[in-house]
Amino acid sequence: MTDSTARRTPLHERHRQLGARMVPFAGWDMPVQYSGLIDEHMAVRKTAGVFDVSHMGEARVRGPQACEFLQYVTCNNVARLNVGRAHYTGLMTPEGCFHDDLLIYRLADDDFLLVLNAANAAKDLAWLNDHVSRFDARVEDESDAWALIALQGPSAVRILEPIAEAPVDELAYYGFAHVAVAGVEALVSRTGYTGEDGFELYVPTEGAGRVWDALMERGGAHGLKPTGLGARDTLRLEAAMALYGNDIDDTTTALEAGLGWIVKFKKGDFIGRDALLLQKAEGLTRRLAGFEMEGRTIARAGYDACVDGKRVGPVTSGSLAPFLERRIGMAYLPLAMTEVGTPFTVDVRGRPQPARVVERPFYKRDKS
User: Which of 67, 254, 285, 330 stands 20 to 30 A from 22 (CA)?
Assistant: First the structure.
């Protein structure tokens, strides 16, 4: 049943016409699946899927010191971003933990677009505004101005190219360009949350339907399927991409999460730097590890990872991996237990089920 109080994306009616099962998510009425989670998951791995992710938040940061401001509130090196490039980073707490994870797009020397998790958008905007006063920069909430459509999968280029007014296959990974798609001016980004090649299209809300319809029409011959939040979660887990609220949050540091590559200590001061330097010097006591269940049981988020019946850490994500046909998950484990092959058990409703640590990511696409 649709929640009458939930917000709706500009594509809401199209989801209902396609027979999507709608669920409340982060205050929005969102499609969790259309033809079925496994069917949609496999389409993205083999052909292509299209997602409505317009619930994500967008913030614009502009001004002479916009770069300096973002250098201070995020952990990656914004100064190294060229115009036309994006990167993944974190809004860190003073403890070196995640206030949120996000993407930053450099639109111009002093103009940036930030993409925020839907559930965190309001608190992120408040956090940014709390810290911007010492810089010659301003933060503006542009969430209502944008719709966001993700086109993911091996056929993504073949589907998008004919309806784009400039070549999109030339875009580098984490590159973007302003391109008209189906006659609608869009920011087209070579990014995604599935482990596949693909694009994320930021379009004005009033043009979302036109772009969605053009993708669906063009994609039919290429096996394109509308894809919901359910498959989005299993796809990102196969690719071992962190989910805020599960694998990372304000109690987990970037180093513990295996995201040290987005922490650039040499750039200078930023929120959380001292805490992360101290943790690096003292050494980690735990780390996020990938694992596979030995049997047919699925380890769900919130279950306990155990050794000799004693809890050693929480399972943060777990699911059947439809493409791999394995039961996989991620968990925070003591550092000594994070070597590949290490056995442990997962407490599944009071029953210990065998598991072992495996390499992450679980899935890597063929780039040949």
Answer: 330
Q: How far apart are alpha carbons 115 and 102 in whole angstroms?
A: 6
Q: Which amino acid appears at position 232 of this protein?
A: R
Query: pLDDT tens-digit profile of 196-250?
Result: 999 999 999 999 999 999 999 999 999 999 999 999 999 999 999 999 999 999 9
Q: How far is CA 333 from CA 10, 321, 357, in A?
A: 42, 21, 10
Q: Domain 285-358, what fold?
A: Elongation Factor Tu (Ef-tu); domain 3 (2.40.30)
This prediction's pTM: 0.96
Handedness of CA 347, 353, 355, 361 (dihedral sign): negative
Q: Where are the domains of the chain?
A: 1-282, 285-358
Tokens of 192: 């995604």
Is beta strand 286-293 parallel, antiparallel or unpaired with respect to 304-307? Answer: unpaired
Strands 351-358 and 57-62: unpaired
* CATH superfamily membership of 1-282: Probable tRNA modification gtpase trme; domain 1 (3.30.1360.120)
Residues 127-146 have pLDDT tens digits of: 999 999 999 999 999 999 99
